[in-house]
Every structure is written in structure tokens, then in C-alpha cells.
Design brief:
The complex is a heterotrimer. By secondary structure, chain B is mostly helical. Chain B is built from 13 helices and two strands. In chain C, a hairpin with a 2-residue loop joins strand 4 and strand 5. The two termini of chain C are about 35 Å apart. The chains are: A mainly alpha, B mainly alpha, C alpha/beta. Chains in contact: A-B, A-C, B-C.
Chain lengths: ~300, ~325, ~550
């Protein structure tokens, strides 16, 4: 830990105002997402706490505003502020889970392809290339959309979130596999790997102890950007109706319901979740950029 | 070169067949129409006989083969909901999507390449920082949100541009929205929305390319021979930067076709993407599967084109290593 | 023509300011070849870059003058400097594989330079370009000038680089490591070419290099740099024969003699004492036929088949053909050859990193080639390998302790934590490193130190035989001398058997009792090292020996 704090890495961080600000922004988002139940009174996921009489109220600083709902309400009576916090929770959860899935799958497969080569490599690269020709959005949409049609309605509500995680996770693994494979191919030519092979170490030992730690750098950068993409993808899927159901809304679902009232001039249900979304993804992207430069060995 | 091309062609066909398999799998999720055709009083034997006549009891692989053959011939099945020929539907709606993608591509490539090179060459200028920050913001805004905000401000608040729909002028080939001013007014916001994300991506990619090339030895050698920075940028950096851009541009068109889905949804733009989304809502599997397969085919063709173009333009690939 | 006075150059980075060149004085006449030699970090490349006005970002001249034909180059504006570059001062780059623009034809790169420097029109420029290519002995120049760089060999590309540097007709040329990236025979050709050009055109050349052999062969005068400062300067013959300063003396002494073998290279040991050179004499017992052969190679073949896709057209490469030799216990056999000769392939085949197509490998009574991996594992402990690149042979994410302890733990030589640590400490001390090194990471050590760590790792499993694959080719000359001496010390102490692979003949002569010469995968000559060096039988061996640089005062 001490080594980390004193390292060049942290020096770079403290020297970079944009990195620190975005980290703070991201941290706040995570904070409100985690502690949502303690920060707001209303749980917008619980239908019993909603009062239809309170629906479609504007933010508190406008006429007709209600001090109980600082940012206004949507058409079901959910407080926008509360929905923001709970929705962020969902968006983050789905984002993190799908990235974790892609990472594990992609890195695992990439390790095998890059180290062992041969038919496994051929197969895996073909599969990855196949999937890479089709943009992730389409893959995720197909998966989520098709599975949704096959699910009985009652199940759909509870299961969709896992379907979305699965869909997004499966749509992105080729990226990690490709990067990992390339990195593994380079590292396996390095002399320290040859030395370990000459010693007689088994491939699994080599992969675990020597190769994996050295390739994680490139993956971390991609994963950061991938998190931003995953969050946006979830929002898009939800907006298109193939994502998280409206009873447990994510930021995307909120925007979807709010879009209908945009023409009536009721902008708050779209703009506030939208800003939250942009803030989250923007900070992730800034951090990702900074991380890429900080971890880049060429610039050492 | 030709044998490599053949290899790529074969590979593409394999990819297509694989995607076709997925498309067919989706297609076959549709409940077979036997129950409807047979009527209420048909017995189980009657249904089985009907099934056999219609060919629904044949092995999967045979039905798959038939699906592929029919696709190639242009028979894409019928919509479950409206019973129209899917092929007709697609032909009707394709121009909308294609024109949208076309305008977006022009914007993306034009802005993206120009700004990408600018930020790559002028590393430290203030304008570069601004462009980069804006592009980073641009890739952080989901397309649908951008569309919604655009509608809110430009349509609802200011009323300059239509919020949805497409204005067309009929021509002998297809109904185009690129001919009239009204048409342009209806297409410009969707096109800009669609390109926002991609411009940002493009700028960063091109910039990364340019930066990498500028660290190369041959650039330093060119400087050592007394060439001006301007000359170096035009004659040495640019030609080398073009190669990777070609591949990315081709892939980008594919990405935009996919993302046009979203734009069409937000702006109610009557293209193939909107048709696909509606099909999902109605579990209209023939449309879903046809769209998927068609779009995948376009992507594969684009990939192949990009590779071929690259091997023509890059001298290293043309004559092979010595 | 060129007078550099008190030049000081510094680089600013986030770690602070580094003075790369400190008050350096150099001068050069027309028609003269000056060598600037030094080890890594000496600042020699920086001097060249400063003269060209092309310092890397973060670099700035802090003081001094660079007088070129009466003008101070440092006073010139960037535009004025641009006019000087190419037209009056030229630069030859090191790596011919990356110095040429891959998407422009040779003709266009040449004509572009000629048009710019000499103000000729396109047609005249093309004629000039052709003339230059012919001068550089590029065959079929007229036809091939419209080809692209990747269609030429490395040696040809370097000639094209030289042509590009010279076609603007400069008076002064700076060549930064012009032959380092090339094979030995090609190197010799390029050096000859440079000599001829200087004689024909009376230009002045500064050759920047770390290679003492190049200095000896090519330069009229030499300047030795160390840590940014000029240490010694004078006529090449003088400096090499009678170096005045201790550093220069050490540098010259570090270069293995091509003409004889010494017991050890005379570099200062820990006490700073240099021993008088003792020419090595063979101990009698070596000729004793009763002395056991520890290692035997019998008709080893390695054939590479490029990976197959259905459409690949690659042909098989017979990298090693019927290689056979024997090494007696405690002896050192040197495997020499140029790149592509198969020497590395042989080593990797023996140790099991590359699959063997046919043949037998016998080691310590075991028939390795027919053993399974499981049977082989305990035997591996007795045969270890040192690799060439010290920056690649240590896992950057592991502590030194773990790197050296890995074989100890793997072979079960010690299990207890303190015992393992104790062994690592004594190994570190044996190779001349402090015991506390085990807590640190590879990036905290220099190339020479990393190679010592690699040696320590090799010794950890108490091997009987060590294969050294170009162990010092990537090291500075003085560091190389220390490591070579260390290997010799260890060989004596542990009665090790060595298989020593190198392309550097003087090094091989210094280290080995027997040698085998490889050409295109076949052993063309083999036998006692001294005998072969004194009287080579095969013409290729003769050719390689002729290519050895003649240092002053030797041969």
C-alpha cells in the first residue's frame, strides 16, 4: 500500500486536476447509489410508497413545485431525485457486473488462445472476429430482445436484469480476448517466460504466475472504458424497451418514460437522469484516459 | 494477392453462414402456423400430416439450408403480424436508413479525419485540448439522450426543426429526403445525433494513429534531411496515417447502421431499424431474423471491402515481403 | 570545419533535470573520421543530436558553442537550421528497417531530398538519384528504384539510408550507430563503403558508436565519453595502444582479444586492481581421453513448419541440420555463426524450448530426446540457460527474491522460508550483488546487474551444465568483461560445463576450449578453439575470422 501511495502512479494522479475531479464525481455517484436508502425517504421501486396524486410535479423551484420532491416527479409519482439515486444504483450494478463477465470470459479465452495457439487459437479468433463484425449494440439487443420474447411475463420482471447483464457481457468479450491474446503472444516470447519453461514449469503455472500479472495493464484500461460503454448500453437497451423493466427503473428506463412527456414541456424526468448518466460516464471516460496515459510504459 | 483474397472470401462466407444459423434460429422461434391452418377440429394425426406436407418436420439442417437459399433469392418470409412480405418491407424502408447513414458518414469522416489529424499534429495547442475535451464529452452522451435533448431544444423550444418523421420527395428510384429543403431539415438532426458518438471516436482513433506515426524513425530522418514540418505532415505522416483509417472507416459505417436503430427510435424515422424494434415488440421473428441477417451481411461485405482496399493502398501488402 | 566548445546539454523530465552532456570539446577536419565512443548513458548520441539541432523533447542546450565553418549553429533560428540540415550537415540513422518511409518508393524519397537540398527539377533529381544508387552498389538500380523499402534487404536499406543522408552533398555527416543493426559481414561492407566515400568526397564524418571494433577499423581519431563528459581524445591508434586515463584503459582492456585468449579480461576487480594479462595455456589434463563426455549431441535436426491455414504457402525451414558435437565435463564449447545460422535454434532444441525433428541429445547419462516431460523435469535442474536480453529475462512484476528462489522452490531444493532466503542471499553475493537486492524489483537494476541476477537464478538449482545464449551481447563493453570473467570464475569453482553461443568471435575465443562453426544450419568446422583460430580449415571460418576487427596493438 505504501509503495502504491509513493509511486509515480499516485504522483501523476495528484498532479492531474481532471483526474481528481472525475474521481470525486464518480465517487459521489457511487456514494449516492450505495447509500440511497438513507439519503432519500421514498423508495421509488416500491409501488406502495408511490402516490399517483403526486405525479408529474415539476422541480421545487418552479411553480407548482413541491418541497417534498425537490426535482419533481414522474408520471407514476416517483420523486425524480429518489429515482436518480436508485436508478444510478441499478445502472452501476449492471455496468460492473457485465464488465466483470466480459473480463473473466475474454481474458480467460485470450490466455488460452495466445499461449497455446493451435486449433484453440484458430477457433477462438474466428469466433471473436465473427462477433466483432457485428456491433455490440446489435448483439446485446438481439440477445435481450429475443430472450425477452421467450420469457413468460411474470418472470420477465425479475429476470430481465440478469438477461441484460448477460447480453451486455456477452457482447463485449471479444475486445478483451483480442487484447489479451495479443499481449499474451508478446509476453510468451519474453525471456523470463522461456526461462520458466526451461525450468520445466507447467503452462498453467506460467500463465498464472508470469503471464497474467503482466497483461492486466492493458485490460484495466479497456475495462474502464468498457464500463462507460456498458452503462450507456444498458441505458440504451432500457430506453428501447429491451432492458430493465419499468418497475425497477434504471436511468435509461426513467428517460424512456420521461420522453413521452417531453413535448408537454415536462423536461425534468429526462434532463436530470440524463445529466446523472452523462456525469457518470464522462468521469469514467476521463479517468480511463488518464489511466491509459499513467499506465503506459512507453511514457515512463 | 489473389489467393489471400480468396481466403478472405471463403472466411466471409463462413461467417455469413454462421450468422445465418443464428438468424435461422431466431426465425424458427416463430410458432409454426400449423395450428392456425389446421383449424380447431383437426386431430393430432391431421396436424402431423399437415406438418409433414408443409415441411416442418424435416431435420434442422435441411430447413436451415432452405432458409439460406431462400434468403439469397430474396424470399425473406412474411411478417407474422401483417403478413406482408418482409422483403417488400425492407425495400420500402431501406432508403430511409441508408440516407441517414450516408449523411452521418460524411459528417463523421469529414469532421473526424480533419480534427483527428489536427489534434495529432498540434499536440499542445489550446484548441486541441478543447477539441479533445468536447469529443470525450461527445462519447459520454448516449445517442438516444442526445436525440431527446436535441428534440427538446430545437423542436419544442425553438421550433426550428421537426421533432420526428421524414419529409421526402418522390423520385424514380426511391423516395429521398436529400432533395428538398424540408427533407434536409428533417434529416439533419437525426444525422447529427447519429454522428456525435462516432465523430468523437474517430477523432481519437485518427489522433492516436498520427501520434504513433510521428514517433517513427523515418519521420525523424526526414527532419534530419531538412524538411519542414508542413512537408513532413503532408508527405510522410498523412500517407501512413491513411491506412488504418480506411479499415476503421469501413467498420464505422457498420457501427452507424447499427446505431441508426436508436436514432430512428427517437425521431420516429421510418427506417429498417425502427421496423426491427417494432418487430421485437411484437415478437415478429421473420422480420427480426431477416434484419439481423441482412445487416450482418452488410457488415461482412464492408469488412471485405476494407481489407481489399487496404491491400491495394498499402504497398507492403501489395507486393509482399522481400 | 567543426569545433564544439564546452557544450552542455540538459534534459528536463518529471524526475528533474538530467545533464546529459557536460562541457564537451570536440573538433573535426574535412576528410577526417572522428569516432565518439562510450557506453550507454555516455551522452554521445546527444552530442550528435545537438549538432543537428534535433534534441529530443525536453532537451535544451545549456551552454557552449558549436562552430561550423565559422558560424555558431546554436545561434541560428529554426528556419536557418532547417536549411543547414541535409544540405550542409547530414545524418545517418541506425536502424535501416525503420528509417525509411514504408509507403514511398525509394526513388521518390531520394528525389524529394535531392530536389529540396540541391534545388533541381524532378527530371534532373531522378538522374542524380539513380547515380547515387549505383554508387551504393544497388543492383538493377534503374528498375528497382521504383520499389518500396520492404522489398530490399537490411544491408541494401542501410545503403539507401546513407545515400539519402549524402545526396544533399553535405560537408559534415553524423552517423549514429550506423552498423549496429546489421550482420557482421554486412557491417564490414558498410564500413568499407563509408571509408571510400570519405576518401572520394573529402567530407568529415563523426561516427557515434559503442563498438570498439568499429572504432579501430574505421576512425582516424577517437573521443571517449563517459557520463556526459569527454574522458580522453586523440589519434585512434594512440588511444587504443596507450590509453592515458583509467577509464580509457579499462575500456580498451575490456575488449576481448581476437588474437589470443587470456585467463581473465583485465578489468579492475572489487579492489580496483588490474592484473597483468596472462595468456591462457591449456592445462594438460584436458587432453586426457579418460575425461568423461558430459554432453553429446548426435545428428540433431530442427525443422520449422510455418503454421498452417488452408491457404498458407509457407515452406519448411530446415533450421538445424545433423548437428553433432560432444562436450567433456568442465569444458566450454562455443557455437559461432551469424544470425540465421541456427545456433540459437540448437540451444533451444537442446533445452526443450523448440521441438526437435530428429536426433539424440545425451546428457549426464540420460537420453533427453526420448524422455517424457515428467521424466525430464529432475534432469532440467542440472541443465540451465542464460538468455541474451537482461531486460526480458526477468519478470518485471516479481521481486528478485522470488525470481531467484523460483527454481529453488520448484525443484524442492529448500522449502523452509528462511532457508530459501539464505540461499538466495549467498547466490547474490556470489555474483557480486548486495544481499538486500532481493527485496527490490528488476527495473531498479542496470543491464549488467540484471544479467548477474539471471546468472544467480541459473546457479540456484546447482546445475552441471549451463547454456549461455549470447549472454553479453546486449551489454556495455566493460560490463560484458565483468560478466564474462564472472562466468569463468563460476565455471572454475563449480566445475561447470558450458555451451556458449555467440556471434562475437573474440568473446568466443576468450571463453571457450572448443568451437563449432555454424553456417545455414550446418556445422562446417569444429575442434579445438585455439587451433581453429590460428589455422582455420574451412573458407567460411576464414571469412569470419577475417571479419574480426583489428584492434591496435593486436595481431
Amino acid at each position: 500500500m505504501k509503495r502504491l501511495l509513493q509511486s509515480d502512479f499516485m504522483q501523476d494522479f495528484f498532479n492531474s486536476p481532471s483526474a481528481m475531479i472525475s474521481f470525486l464525481a464518480l465517487f459521489s455517484v457511487i456514494f449516492v447509489a450505495l447509500f440511497a436508502p438513507w439519503l432519500v425517504d421514498q423508495n421509488p421501486f416500491d409501488p406502495l410508497q408511490l402516490d399517483l396524486m403526486d405525479s408529474q410535479l415539476p422541480p421545487v423551484w418552479m411553480a407548482d413545485g413541491d418541497s417534498r420532491y425537490v426535482l419533481g416527479t414522474d408520471e407514476q409519482g416517483r420523486g425524480v431525485l429518489a429515482a436518480l439515486f436508485y436508478g444510478a444504483r441499478l445502472s452501476l450494478l449492471v455496468g460492473l457486473a457485465s464488465v466483470a463477465l466480459s473480463l473473466v470470459l475474454g481474458v480467460g479465452v485470450g490466455l488460452i488462445a495466445g499461449y497455446f495457439r493451435g486449433w484453440a487459437d484458430q477457433l477462438i479468433t474466428r469466433l471473436a472476429d465473427l462477433q466483432l463484425t457485428i456491433p455490440g449494440l446489435l448483439v446485446a439487443l438481439m440477445l435481450a430482445g429475443v430472450i425477452k420474447t421467450q420469457l413468460p411475463v411474470e418472470m420477465a420482471e425479475t429476470v430481465m436484469i440478469y438477461v441484460v447483464i448477460l447480453a451486455i457481457g456477452l457482447s463485449d468479450w471479444p475486445k478483451y480476448a483480442r487484447v489479451t491474446r495479443a499481449a499474451v503472444m508478446i509476453e510468451s516470447q519474453e525471456d523470463y517466460v522461456l526461462a520458466a519453461r526451461a525450468m520445466g514449469a507447467s503452462p498453467w503455472l506460467i500463465l498464472r504466475r508470469h503471464v497474467l500479472p503482466n497483461i492486466m495493464r492493458s485490460n484495466i484500461v479497456i475495462a474502464t472504458v468498457g464500463l462507460g460503454v456498458a452503462i450507456m448500453l444498458e441505458a440504451t437497451l432500457s430506453f428501447l424497451g429491451a432492458g430493465v423493466p419499468t418497475t425497477t427503473p434504471s436511468l435509461g428506463t426513467l428517460i424512456r418514460s420521461g420522453a413521452n412527456f417531453l413535448f408537454a414541456g415536462e423536461w425534468w424526468v429526462v434532463v436530470f437522469p440524463g445529466c446523472m448518466l452523462i456525469l457518470t460516464v464522462f468521469s469514467i471516460n476521463i479517468l480511463g484516459d488518464w489511466l491509459r496515459d499513467a499506465l503506459n510504459p512507453k511514457l515512463d | 494477392m489473389s489467393h489471400k483474397f480468396v481466403a478472405r472470401l471463403v472466411q466471409s462466407v463462413v461467417v455469413l453462414l454462421a450468422t445465418g444459423l443464428v438468424a435461422f434460429a431466431i426465425f424458427s422461434l416463430a410458432p409454426d402456423p400449423v395450428d392456425n391452418l389446421a383449424g380447431e377440429y383437426a386431430t393430432i394425426e391431421d396436424r402431423a400430416a399437415l406438418r409433414a406436407t408443409l415441411g416442418y418436420d424435416r431435420p434442422f439442417i435441411v430447413q436451415y439450408g432452405e432458409y439460406i437459399i431462400k434468403f439469397v433469392q430474396g424470399d425473406l418470409g412474411k411478417s407474422l403480424r401483417t403478413n406482408e412480405l418482409v422483403a417488400d418491407l425492407i425495400a420500402e424502408r431501406a432508403p430511409a436508413t441508408l440516407e441517414l447513414v450516408f449523411v452521418s458518414t460524411v459528417i463523421t469522416l469529414g469532421l473526424g479525419v480533419w480534427l483527428g489529424i489536427f489534434t495529432g499534429v498540434n499536440r499542445r495547442s489550446k484548441r486541441t485540448q478543447l477539441i479533445l475535451s468536447t469529443s470525450l464529452l461527445g462519447v459520454s452522451i448516449p445517442t438516444f439522450l442526445m436525440g431527446l435533448l436535441g428534440i427538446y431544444y430545437f423542436s419544442v423550444q425553438f421550433g426550428w426543426l421537426p421533432a420526428s418523421g421524414r419529409k421526402v420527395v418522390e423520385t424514380s428510384l426511391w423516395d429521398s429526403s436529400l432533395i428538398s429543403l424540408d427533407g434536409w431539415r428533417s434529416i439533419i438532426m437525426p444525422a447529427l445525433t447519429l454522428s456525435l458518438f462516432n465523430v468523437g471516436l474517430f477523432i481519437r482513433l485518427v489522433r492516436a494513429d498520427v501520434l504513433e506515426i510521428r514517433t517513427m524513425d523515418y519521420i525523424k530522418f526526414a527532419r534530419a534531411r531538412g524538411f519542414s514540418e508542413q512537408r513532413i505532415n503532408h508527405h510522410h505522416v498523412l500517407p501512413n496515417a491513411v491506412m488504418p483509417v480506411i479499415t476503421v472507416a469501413a467498420l464505422n459505417i457498420g457501427v452507424m447502421i447499427a446505431f441508426s436503430l436508436i436514432t430512428e427510435a427517437v425521431f420516429q424515422w421510418p427506417g429498417m431499424g425502427l421496423m426491427f424494434l417494432q418487430a421485437i415488440g411484437f415478437s415478429d421473428f421473420p422480420i427480426m431474423s431477416a434484419y439481423f441477417f441482412l445487416v450482418a451481411t452488410i457488415f461482412v461485405v464492408l469488412n471485405l471491402l476494407a481489407d481489399t482496399l487496404l491491400s491495394i493502398v498499402d504497398p507492403r501488402l501489395r507486393r509482399g515481403e522481400s | 570545419m567543426l569545433v564544439i566548445k564546452d557544450l552542455t546539454v540538459a534534459f528536463d523530465s518529471r524526475r528533474g533535470r538530467l545533464t546529459a552532456v557536460r562541457k564537451v570539446n570536440l573538433d573535426l577536419q574535412r576528410g577526417e573520421i572522428l569516432g565518439v565512443v562510450g557506453e550507454s548513458g555516455a551522452g554521445k548520441s546527444t552530442v550528435g543530436a545537438a549538432v543537428m539541432g534535433l534534441l529530443e523533447s525536453g532537451g535544451s542546450v545549456q551552454g557552449g558553442q558549436i562552430m561550423f565553418d565559422g558560424d555558431n549553429l546554436l545561434d541560428k533560428t529554426p528556419d536557418q537550421m532547417r536549411a543547414v540540415r541535409g544540405r550542409r550537415i547530414g545524418m545517418i540513422f541506425q536502424d535501416p528497417m525503420t528509417a525509411l518511409n514504408p509507403v514511398k518508393t525509394i526513388a521518390s524519397q531520394l528525389t524529394e531530398t535531392i530536389e529540396h537540398a540541391l534545388d533541381l527539377n524532378a527530371k534532373a533529381a531522378r538522374i542524380e538519384a539513380l547515380a547515387w544508387l549505383n554508387k551504393m552498389d544497388i543492383p538493377n538500380a534503374e528498375e528497382r528504384m521504383d520499389h518500396y523499402p520492404h522489398e530490399f534487404s537490411g544491408g541494401q536499406r542501410q545503403r539507401i539510408v546513407i545515400a539519402l543522408a549524402l545526396c544533399g552533398e553535405p560537408d559534415l555527416v553524423i552517423a549514429d550507430e550506423p552498423t549496429t543493426a546489421l550482420d557482421v559481414s554486412v557491417q564490414a561492407q558498410i564500413l568499407q563503403l563509408i571509408k571510400k566515400l570519405v576518401a572520394d568526397t573529402n567530407i568529415g564524418i563523426i561516427i557515434i558508436t559503442h563498438n570498439m571494433g568499429v572504432i579501430a577499423e574505421l576512425t582516424d581519431r577517437v573521443a571517449i565519453m563517459r557520463h556526459g563528459e569527454l574522458v580522453e581524445e586523440g589519434l585512434t591508434q594512440q588511444v587504443l595502444l596507450h590509453p592515458q586515463t583509467p577509464y580509457a584503459q579499462m575500456l580498451v582492456a575490456s575488449v576481448p582479444h581476437g588474437d589470443r585468449r587470456l585467463t581473465r579480461l583485465q578489468v579492475p576487480d572489487e579492489n580496483g586492481i588490474i592484473q597483468a594479462p596472462i595468456t591462457y595455456t591449456k592445462p594438460d589434463q584436458v587432453d586426457n581421453p579418460a575425461h568423461k563426455a558430459l554432453f553429446k549431441l548426435d545428428k540433431l535436426n530442427v525443422i520449422y513448419r510455418p503454421g498452417g491455414g488452408v491457404f498458407s504457402k509457407g515452406t519448411a525451414v530446415h533450421a538445424l541440420q545433423d548437428a553433432s558435437f560432444t562436450i567433456a565435463k568442465g569444458q566450454a564449447l562455443g557455437l559461432v555463426g551469424e544470425s540465421g545460422s541456427g545456433k540459437s535454434t540448437c540451444a533451444r532444441g537442446i533445452i526443450g524450448l523448440t521441438p526437435i525433428s530428429s536426433g539424440h541429445v545425451e546428457f549426464d547419462g540420460h537420453e533427453l530426446s526420448s524422455m517424457s516431460e515428467r521424466q525430464r523435469r529432475p534432469v532440467r535442474a542440472d541443465m540451465q540457460m542464460i538468455f541474451q536480453d537482461p531486460y526480458s529475462s526477468l519478470n518485471k512484476r516479481m521481486k528478485i527474491l522470488d525470481i531467484i528462489a523460483e527454481p529453488i522452490r520448484f525443484y524442492g531444493i529448500a522449502k523452509d522460508r528462511s532457508e530459501v532466503e539464505g540461499r538466495v542471499e549467498s547466490l547474490l553475493q556470489r555474483v557480486g550483488l548486495p544481499a538486500d537486492a532481493l527485496k527490490r524489483y528488476p527495473h531498479q537494476f542496470s543491464g549488467g546487474q540484471r544479467q548477474r541476477i539471471a546468472v544467480a537464478r541459473t546457479l540456484a538449482s546447482k546445475p552441471k551444465m549451463i547454456i549461455c545464449d549470447e549472454p553479453t551481447s546486449a551489454l556495455d563493453v566493460s560490463v560484458q568483461a565483468h560478466v564474462l570473467n564472472l562466468i569463468k570464475d563460476l565455471q572454475d569453482e563449480y566445475d561447470l560445463t558450458l555451451l556458449f553461443i555467440s556471434h562475437d568471435l573474440p568473446v568466443v575465443r576468450q571463453m571457450c576450449d572448443q568451437i563449432a562453426v555454424l553456417k545455414d544450419g550446418k556445422i562446417v568446422e569444429m575442434g579445438d578453439a585455439e587451433a581453429i583460430f590460428e589455422a582455420p580449415q574451412h573458407p567460411y571460418t576464414q571469412h569470419l575470422i577475417d571479419l574480426m576487427p583489428h584492434m591496435a596493438g593486436r595481431h
